[in-house]
Design a protein that fits this description.
This protein has 193 residues and is mainly α. The protein contains eleven helices and no strands. The longest helix has 28 residues, at 2-29.
């Protein structure tokens, strides 16, 4: 009897290990086409969007954050309403006021709005040596915080490392560093499939 139990455990382990790998691969890449599509539209490196989603929610489409952010890219209702207003489409404006959680829980819409917002923030920092770090910091803590962290200096001259050192909120510093690390270490493999 013990031999059967041990054999069963070995068989389960042999099946579970590769199954876990393939499930993880599926989980992390099931939105790659949506990410690539929206990244192209908003002229963002899709690897940055993928890395941001990995950090924000680990690809959980229905995730709700502590400050009521919703979905894969953790979009706030305020950003959703701003996006809806800018589109000029009354249906999106209605959805963003009546049922913003449903709107933002749709992965396609969430990645679209998140990419739009990321690009809108990036416009402020375009061409700076710390462009990506500043954009990620603004995405996480708000553009006013980035302005605070770059005052009394010429932000167009700050290197990425210098800017990251200036981030005054440790969780934002970790957030930016983690995304940049993932983007650079794994970016060549993500999400092009």
């Amino acid at each position: 009897m013990t031999r059967y139990i041990i054999s069963g455990i070995i068989i389960l382990a042999v099946v579970a290990i590769p199954g876990g790998y393939f499930f993880r691969d599926y989980w992390e890449h099931r939105f790659d086409e949506l990410i690539a599509q929206q990244a192209r539209i908003y002229r963002i490196d899709e690897k940055v969007v993928w890395s941001l989603i990995y950090e924000e929610t680990y690809f959980k489409a229905g995730a709700i954050g502590d400050a009521d952010e919703v979905g894969l890219m953790q979009i706030t209702p305020l950003v959703a309403r701003e996006w809806a207003k800018e589109t000029g489409l009354s249906e999106f404006e209605r959805q963003s006021t009546e049922n913003v959680v449903e709107l933002l829980s749709d992965p396609r819409r969430n990645i679209q709005i998140g990419s739009w917002y990321y690009e809108k923030l990036r416009e402020r920092y375009r061409g700076r040596p710390a462009e990506t770090a500043m954009t990620l910091a603004a995405y996480n803590a708000g553009p006013s915080r980035v302005e605070e962290w770059t005052k009394n200096t010429d932000p167009t001259l700050l290197t990425e490392a210098e800017f990251i050192e200036r981030i005054g909120i440790s969780s934002t510093r970790s957030y930016v560093s983690s995304i940049l690390t993932r983007y650079r270490e794994h970016g060549a493999q993500q999400p092009s499939r």
